[in-house]
Every structure is written in C-alpha cells, then in structure tokens.
Design a protein that fits this description.
Layout (H helix, E strand, L loop, with lengths): L5 H16 L2 E3 L28 E4 L3 E4 L6 E3 L2 E4 L3 E5 L6 E3 L2 E9 L8 E3 L3 E11 L5 E3 L2 E11 L6 E3 L4 E11 L8 E4 L6 E6 L2 E10 L8 E6 L4 E9 L13 E3 L4 E6 L5 H7 L3 E3 L12 H4 L10 E6 L4 E6 L5 H20 L1
Parallel strand pairs: 1-2, 2-5, 3-6, 4-7, 5-8, 6-8, 7-9, 8-10, 9-11, 10-12, 11-13, 12-14, 13-15, 14-16, 14-17, 15-17, 16-18, 17-19, 18-20, 19-21, 20-22
Antiparallel strand pairs: 21-24, 23-24
Length: about 350
C-alpha cells in the first residue's frame, strides 16, 4: 500500500480532531426513580460528562440527588435541552461545582424543590428554558450565573437569591424573577452568610426582585456592587432595600450606572431613594460618587443642562420611584440661530455706537 497523500492525511487528521473535540455523551435515564441520576455512569451512552470534550446532553426527564448533607456534582459539563431535571432525596440543594451547566431548553427544578446552587468556577447559563429555585431552599450563586434568555425563577415567599464567595450574576436578556407578594421576605443580593466581593450586572432583560440586600456589619466585610450597564433596553424592579439590621448596613450599598445603559431601576417602596443614595455617596456614575465629582448635588446630577458627565444626567420618576440615565439634549437649530442673531445684532449695535 502506498503512503497516504499529504492532503488526505491532513484532512483525516482534522476530521479526527473535530470528532474528538465535539464528542459528547447522551443521558439515557428516564428520570422517574431515585436510583436514576445524572451521577450514574450507566445512564450515559459515552460515560459521565466530566470533561469539556465529553459534554452531557439531557433532552428527557432526569434527576439529581439532594441527599441529606451536601451533594456536590464536581466537574460536570451539562447541556439541558429538554425534559425536566428534578430532585430526589430532598435534604439539601444539589451543588454544581466547577464545570458548566447550560440550559438550552428544558427545565431545572420545580417550584416545590430546593434552590439552585453552584460553586467554585462553575459557569451556569440560561439561553432558553428555565431554572427554578424551589420553595424549600434559597438559591446560592457561588460562582457565575448568566441569564441570556429564558427564565430564572426563585419560588417561595421566604426564599432568596444569594451571592457568595465573589460570585457574579448577570442578566443580559430573558427574565429573573422572585416572589414579591405582600408577605414576601426573600432577599436578592448578599446576607450575613455571604463571603467575598460579589457582583450583580443588569445589562438587559427583566429583573423582578423583592428586597435588595447589600451586606452586613460583621467581620466578613463582604460587598456587593449592583451595576446597570449594557446597551440593551431592560428593566429592574425591587420592592425595597433590606431593613437595616445585622443583615445589612447602608454603607455597603454600591449601585453603579455605566454610560450608554438603557436600563431602568425602580425601588417601588423607597420614597425618593435615588436622591438619598446619591447624597450618601452610595449611588455611582461610572464608578464615581457625588464626592468624586466634586460633591455634585442631586439637583445638578438630574439637571439636563449639567448632568453627571459624558453628556448624561440622571432622570428620576418620583411617582414610580424609577431611575434611568438620559442624554443631555443637543441645542436645537432654532436656539443656535437665535444665539447667532443675537451675536450679530450686538455686533452691529457696537459698530453704530
């Protein structure tokens, strides 16, 4: 047999390389019994999905174990495209540590289950479909969560969405929602059990939260920065700030607005909240507070002739308690003509005099 031509050899090598890179394993369980779980190798047709080159696709009903004690799935790479992934042995919220958890259709969790939890360097993404944090536990974001479509919903009047260990939660499209009924006590942000510098980035989509919680006065010195950015039209609504107590100190609040954002933020139960936060140097524009801008007053920050910089000013609706950024209007052509005529007339008067 003659040697393989170089072109054919290279083509074969490339095809083989692509095949290896795109290898995946398909969940074959039926998700109806406590012994059928994504952690069992027999429920996959190509081994457990514990590497980025062997991503596990789930397109039917499936289950995860929430045994008493912490049940952690480490280095799992999952692509949920259909069916419902429910929990059994509901003792604690299952934790996805490291790896990826991507929802491209399908549903994770039920309204009556545990919360959604991740940790380490896990990247959780919703493109379509939904993740449900159930009413039996808070959702604990300990790594990264991106809502790029679909829905992340936290159920339960006393349940919250808590960030910890320098986590990042970003909404760029889709919906993030939690219970905001009159009896709801759940919080969105960080609380006394959180650790590290955490970030919530609202760059589009629709976010509906209950109580915004930014930190506590304990020894952990945790922080949360809430940033309104991106260029997509979006809205965020909260009922109020967390009641000041050991669970939060006002000084820990950081709400930052970035140039170009088309987001709106309403805190419906906090009367004239934006003015109070600006005066207290807890409301920022591009990372700069009132003090950083020469003790710029709220009246000037909301003045369409002065503003906060880069041709922007804050626009506040006192009826809905909604804050947004607006562009300082350009001088109209009529105004420019009027200015020009005034200059000409004044010049003529001087010559005549």
């Amino acid at each position: 047999m003659k040697n393989m031509p170089l072109k054919l050899f290279l083509t074969t090598a490339i095809v083989a390389s692509v095949s290896v890179a795109s290898a995946q394993t398909l969940y074959q369980g039926v998700g109806t019994g406590s012994d059928l779980d994504i952690d069992l190798v027999g429920n996959w047709n190509n081994g457990l999905p514990t590497s980025s080159v062997n991503v596990g696709t789930i397109n039917t009903d499936s289950t995860v174990d929430a045994s008493a004690g912490n049940f952690t799935y480490t280095d799992y790479f999952l692509n949920l495209t259909g069916g419902t992934m429910s929990q059994f042995n509901v003792g604690n919220s299952p934790v996805f540590r490291d790896g990826n958890f991507t929802v491209n259709g399908g549903i994770y969790g039920t309204s009556g289950g545990r919360g959604f939890s991740n940790s380490g360097v896990n990247i959780a993404t919703i493109n379509s479909g939904s993740i449900n944090g159930g009413s039996l536990g808070d959702s604990r974001i300990g790594a990264s969560l991106l809502v790029a479509g679909g829905t992340f919903q936290q159920h339960g009047t006393d349940r919250g969405i808590r960030l910890t260990r320098s986590a990042t939660l970003t909404v760029s499209a889709g919906i993030l929602v939690m219970d905001t009924t009159g009896s709801a006590t759940g919080t969105f942000g960080v609380n006394q059990s959180s650790i590290g510098s955490n970030s919530i980035n609202l760059n589009g989509g629709t976010t509906t939260a209950n109580l915004l919680a930014f930190g506590n006065g304990g020894s952990l010195r945790l922080t949360l920065r809430l940033t309104l950015g991106g260029t997509a039209v979006g809205s965020a609504t909260a009922v109020n700030f967390q009641t000041l107590s050991d669970n939060e100190t006002a000084a820990s609040r950081k709400i930052d607005w970035l140039t170009g954002t088309k987001m709106t933020l309403a805190i419906s139960g906090a009367d004239e909240w934006a003015a109070a936060e600006w005066t207290a140097n807890r409301l920022f524009y591009n990372g700069q507070s009132s003090a950083d801008l020469g003790n710029l007053s709220w009246a000037d920050a909301t003045n369409s002739s002065i503003g906060v910089g880069s041709g922007n000013y804050f626009l506040y609706n006192s009826t809905s308690e909604t804050l947004s950024l607006a562009l300082i209007p350009e001088p109209s052509v009529v105004a420019l003509i009027a200015v020009g005529l005034t200059v000409v007339l004044m010049s003529r008067r001087r010559r005549c005099a």
